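Hi R.,

Here are the chain sequences for the assembly we discussed:
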Amino acid sequence: MTIAVIKDVLAGKFAVGDTVTVRGWVRTRRDSKAGISFINIHDGTCFDAVQAVAPNTLSNYQNEVVRLTTGCSVVVTGTVAESAGQGQAFELQATDVEVIGWVEDPDTYPMAPKRHSMEYLREFAHLRPRTNITGAVTRVRHCLAQAVHRFFHERGFYWISTPIITTSDAEGAGELFRVSTLDLMNLPRTENGQVDFKEDFFGKEAFLTVSGQLNVETYACALSNVYTFGPTFRAENSNTSRHLAEFWMIEPEVAFADLNDMAALAEDMLKYVFRAVLEERADDMAFFAERIDKEAISRLQHVIDNDFVHMDYTDAVEILQKCGKTFNYPVSWGTDLQSEHERYLAEEHVGAPVILKNYPRDIKAFYMRQNDDGKTVAAMDVLAPGIGEIIGGSAREERLDLLDQRLEEMNLPKEEYSWYRDLRRYGTVPHAGFGLGFERLVAYVTGVQNIRDVIPFPRSPKNAEF
Amino acid sequence: MTIAVIKDVLAGKFAVGDTVTVRGWVRTRRDSKAGISFINIHDGTCFDAVQAVAPNTLSNYQNEVVRLTTGCSVVVTGTVAESAGQGQAFELQATDVEVIGWVEDPDTYPMAPKRHSMEYLREFAHLRPRTNITGAVTRVRHCLAQAVHRFFHERGFYWISTPIITTSDAEGAGELFRVSTLDLMNLPRTENGQVDFKEDFFGKEAFLTVSGQLNVETYACALSNVYTFGPTFRAENSNTSRHLAEFWMIEPEVAFADLNDMAALAEDMLKYVFRAVLEERADDMAFFAERIDKEAISRLQHVIDNDFVHMDYTDAVEILQKCGKTFNYPVSWGTDLQSEHERYLAEEHVGAPVILKNYPRDIKAFYMRQNDDGKTVAAMDVLAPGIGEIIGGSAREERLDLLDQRLEEMNLPKEEYSWYRDLRRYGTVPHAGFGLGFERLVAYVTGVQNIRDVIPFPRSPKNAEF
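And here is the predicted structure of the full complex:
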């Protein structure tokens, strides 16, 4: 018995006349008046299902084949034939249809073969992988993750698994999830009535990480080129299509690098992973372009084909102020740009990805490297047409005196950052990095509007089902 | 200016006489009586440091070069020359030595160039990446992670990021970390005085995952071949060299597969990643074989060269009972094997990796597939010489009635598993998978004894520093 994955059958890896066995789930079944059933079977190996043509001469035709419904699992053996129908080049002339698993009460099967809303599918996160859209998202997500790892590996970067549980807060201000094993009905107390975290699992108050950056800097300052790719967390009460409480981040960090090096790395990386997805997942991308967002493919091609435009924050503010467009939020030097401003710059003013650089010091994190102008820091955002900010990065302040000055100005306790300061006391080097939210990347690539639909099991306020 | 990574210089990618610039950290400096300094510089791109030969004719020779100490960061330009010394084929005749960062008080620099204990290095987890051993561990860890992703990708598996925060407990009995944003000083209460988790971020009590298996099964039952590679957690109060509170797991899951398919997949995967590390990280592996464990290389080669031996649990018990060896724990059918038993089987009885199969039902998890004998389940452990259990897996119970029977016997609430049961109600398929603790794999490959030394920032009871 030659077991075949459907991808290989459809790609013509078997000769017409070969007998193969495919295993998967029924997408649809249609019966002809002539006593033939056409069963579409998917196994997840590619977007398309294969059609198995089952004649009524099969011994279980009346008892089983004509009772097959969407979602049933089957093992079908047949001979490969050229397909008379449209769409596919090959089909199977079934000689045996074995039913492995029925669908209990097909009338109430939640994944019935019709168009479901994304909200509905989210309620069935355990069954939505069987749909066209979630299957396609999953394959594209996988392709992007692999391409990210490959991109960095080829450039000599090492993957560093920074800690998930931490006792520090990288941004100095995040909204944090506490991690604890304390018995809530019997909390230990200190003498002055506070919760005694000395009794907790880690001996102090611990949280889920919001970023691996500070940790991964320790590896960049020893191994030069490193990156993280792992989950991060925000306990923000944001019920938007762009926020998740749990999401995956990619954070490269490079020794002896400056902001322009990071801008180039970000551009190279995005182009690399977009090329990978257009080459490797043409089937799924065609589906997204047809059904979700007609620009899904052209948008990526546009990014690949164009140089990213570098622009100073200060120049951007001037452009926005002079452009004659009315924004909901006014623009002035010293304030953060809003999504409407970012999208205007990338989509209307430039028409290509824009890398905004050198932001006002006072709106940025303590670790960003101060520029000589005394007002700005070497920070950048990559703004992509159609989504806005997709990457944020900076050169890190490698000069101990200037780092300490910022810690003091921002009332951050130096003792808490002693290990981070050590990197500046012992062989400090200029270094820089950036962060990319992986789900925002997947949403951008697929055109799927809500970030909850591009991660297998989304976590958001009041929702950690499954 | 041609920037060169040290790996390329030592590998002869530049011609003798080429001028290149390397950037990194000083490992050692030695001055000759003739007024020449030999500076060993590492940049993390390979195990070895490159030697830069700095003559006293350099303008900053007296002021700076002879003051260089371990850990200082430098940018050195020089011409590539054949090395007269032993070990390396190439060195740099320095024409410029720029000091980027000094070491504050070299006498107290924690990473002074001498042999430190692993315990000592753990206290300086932010600086230990600069040591030979942590550098080598990091590169090998990276190589193994990449090889794992590549292995699965080449075989058509999709990477699935199963959730980190969950409201269910995969094993039905784990020791869990609670994830919460409740104010501990002001806990909301239900009418009967219990903590009201409806007020918590996720609207119910939430935990860190102990395994992605149950979640990833939902994707296997749609996309056929999938795997997880992500962090998992155990709130066990175990201070051993084999336990971490936070560690990374690899969990493939395959539709239409049985236990023997998983045994073959586990064998293929281990051999694949071992080959990768021997080929790609020969430099680091040579170090481990020389300094940490003289069998580091031969052990991997032995696994690669030998077929894994399959053995039934029942037969193993008989072998252990009859072998004439005295164990600390007695062996009897129906009890779990101890490490001493596993190691005897793999190291002494067989002398190769052993796959033990078909364990007593009553010592295994509810989801494992029941064998026809009514006593055992289709579970396996892969036992490797020198470490014992490295992989655990099973076929999953795909028959709803038998799954329900186990849930009832083990007093697990059916409602909690309704989504898991749905996979058996709608087109169920035989499927199987296994789990591999990534840090145990890295420890096995490197010979490093304590698992805390093969993860960047180990988390264990009373320890979540950095």
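Residues 267 and 308 of chain B are 7 Å apart (CA to CA). The domain at 132-174+210-453 of chain B is CATH 3.30.930.10 (BirA Bifunctional Protein; domain 2).

Let me know if anything looks off.

Best,
T.
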